Protein 1
Amino acid sequence: MIEEEIVEYYKLLYLRGLSTLLSGNISVRSGDLILITPTSLPKPLLRPEDLVYIDFEGRVVKGTRQPSSEWRMHAAVYRRRPDVGAIVHVHPVHSTLLAERIKPDLFLEGDIYIGGPLAVVPPLQPGTWELAEAVADALARANVAVLKKHGVVAVGRSLAEAVNRVEVVEDLAKATLINLWINSGI
Ligand SMILES: [Zn+2]
């Protein structure tokens, strides 16, 4: 069941230090609806029944919780990218701080996994249509966007692909930092 898959992937993201207890959101496209994580609840403790189905206007179609406050971002990206089946948004520290300084070519497989350029979005108020549209614009030609002073949004055809992209970008950000240390002669 896809609900269980989302819950399990969230645990993995949390255990890898890519998400804090309450932050971030995950969704998958489900026909004309979006299956998305709820707001406020501790994410690694979510149960499949905590997830909600919403339409593209944010109305809850199935489920008892309130959707993530970033549902606009998910809706805007799915509208812009018919090929996208899953979206992951978390707040990994290294990626967020390094943003445009991340060097995808430090790993030979970096570009392959990311599958395009790394987009960067300026700091914008979370939960707004302004942020949602800026992220959708950025992801029109990219699979990962770093939201400055905020976090990362990764898309994929599948949930696994999107989660992997978050991991790869954070690893690349760490590698970029280590590379800076090496080159500074420490
Ligand atoms: Zn966020």
Protein 2
Amino acid sequence: MDLLDYLKAKIQNSNYPVVITGPRITFPSDTLPFKANYFGHSLNDILSLDFLQSNYEIFIKTCILIGEWNKKKPNYIHESIKELDIPIITENIDMLHTIAGSKKVIQLLGNIQDFVCTKCNFSIPFFQSKKYINIHKPFYCPECHSPIKLNIVLKGEAIRNFHHALNEIYKADTLLILGSDLDRWPINKLNQLANKQGSKIIIINEFKV
Ligand SMILES: [Zn+2]
């Protein structure tokens, strides 16, 4: 049975199925980039407010590298979820659900499509940022010279759209959790709530590459 048929079977008797997705749907193998080494640090460590403040040069160089994920295309998992046509709550920052054509996507951690200033309103799409960016020297806001970052939620910053996500979970009688470890507070509250209210929960973390 392929993934789409499997998921359809799981939600066929559900009135309001919802899916939470995490990085393992974009990177189905074990070689998750979050565990990879960037300039001697893990991505997990770098994408934090503390790291931005203490080591901006490595921070911004890493942002430039992961901005290249904007070239990624949706895979069979994104396509299957799109076919289900159900609300999506995602930890992913790559926009691949939207690119696959999914309509209702709640992004908890922002996305990598733009660079934004940490102080003023300056923002620029990643692919137009090359005129400012040179990986050999740190890049600051051209308006106010403050540090910039991809438009993502760093560790130490508040999760976005959490109340929208909660609203969906309240309505969900079935919750699919695909490719997420749900190890980040308060995202882990979502499946705890679903569990508490008796929603059916289906977790899939292994995908063929
Ligand atoms: Zn600025």
